[in-house]
Amino acid sequence: MIEIKNLVVEIEGNRILNGLDLTVADGEVAAIMGPNGSGKSTLSYVIAGKEDYEVLDGEILLDGENLLELEAYERASKGVFLAFQYPLEIPGVATMSFLKAILNAQRKAREEEELTTPDFLRLVRGAAEKLEINQEMLKRALNVGFSGGEKKRMEILQMALLQPKFCILDETDSGLDIDALRIVSEGVNALRDEKRAFLVITHYQRLLNHIVPDTVHVMSKGRIVRSGGKELALELEASGYAEYSTEAA
After folding, report:
1. Domains of the chain in sequence order
2. What average pLDDT score do residues 195-224 get?
C-alpha cells in the first residue's frame, strides 16, 4: 500500500503540493483528475524521486517505508514505476540492451540471478507480442523514431517485464489514437493484480473507459479536494473543472 501524508513540495520557491494526503491500497486502481497546474505530474515525479523538487514536509510510505529517504533507483528496486507523459528518446542505446539492463538490475537488487540470454529473449518477445510491438521496433535505439503510441507501448512493455508493485501512469493517454489507447489499456489491465496498485493521472474520461478505476480523486491547488467512485469521472467529464480551476503552476 502507498500512503502519502501531508506532502508539501516546492520548486524554485513555488509551492506546488500543499499538504496532500492520498492512500492507494494493494490491488486498487486510483485515478487523479484535475485542471492544469493542480500538481498532478509533480506528484508523480516526487513519488518516483525526480530531482529539483524540494520536499518541505510529509511522507510517502510504500508498505510502511518512507520513499523520500531513498534515491530514485532504490525506489525503482522497491517496485515503483513511472510511465512518463512524454517518454524520452535515447539515441545510441539499443532497446534490447536497455531492457536487459533494467531487468537484471532489478533482479540483482532482489538478490536473484541474472536472466540468461535465451530466457530474456523469450520473456521480451512474449510480452512484446501482446502489446503489438514488432521485432523491428526492438532492434532500434530506445524510442528513437517511434510514434507517440509506440513510445507508450514501450513504457507498458517495461512495466510488464519489471512487474512493479506501484505503477504511476502520468497522462498515458496523451497523444494516443483510438487503437493505441486500446492496446496500451489492455496491457495495463493485464497487469492488474491484488498485490499491485496503480495511480492513473489523466484529464479525460476516455482513458477511464478502458482502465476502469476503483477510486477517483480530484486534485486542485496542490491537494486532493474530492474523492469518489468511478462515477465521479463521468461527472467531471460533463461539468468540467471550473469549480476546481487554478492558475497553472
Report:
1. 2-91+166-244 (3.40.50.300)
2. 92
The H or E element that residue 6 is part of is strand 2-11
Give the three cell numbers for residue 211. Answer: 482502465
Q: How far apart are CA 44 and CA 35, in angstroms?
A: 15
Residue type, 25: A
Contact 120, 100 (CB under 8 A): yes
Q: What is the pLDDT of residues 48-101, one digit of tens each?
A: 999 889 999 999 999 999 999 999 999 999 999 999 888 899 999 999 999 999
At residue 130, the pLDDT reads: 87
β pairing state of 223-228 and 215-220:
antiparallel
Distant-in-sequence, close-in-space partners of 136: CB < 8 Å, separation ≥ 6? none
Half-sphere exposure (Cβ direction) of 138: Cα atoms closer than 13 Å: 19
Q: For the stretch 143-178, what's the b/e string if a residue is b when 16 or more beta carbons lie within 10 angstroms of its beta carbon? A: beebeebbbbbbbbbbbbbbebbbbbbbbbbeebee
Q: Is residue 246's pLDDT more than 70?
A: no
How do residues 162-203 score in pLDDT, each as one tens digit? 999 999 999 888 878 888 888 889 989 999 999 999 999 998
Q: Which three cell numbers stand for residue 6?
A: 501531508
| Single pTM value for the model | 0.90
CA distance 201 to 215: 12
Q: Write out the three cell numbers for 26.
A: 494493494
Give how far Cα 136 sits from Cα of 90, 96, 150, 153, 159, Å. 17, 11, 12, 14, 20
How far apart CA 49 and CA 192 sit, in angstroms, is: 24
| The length of the chain, given as a count of residues | 249
Strand, coil or helix: 151: helix
Only one residue has cell 510510505, namely 61
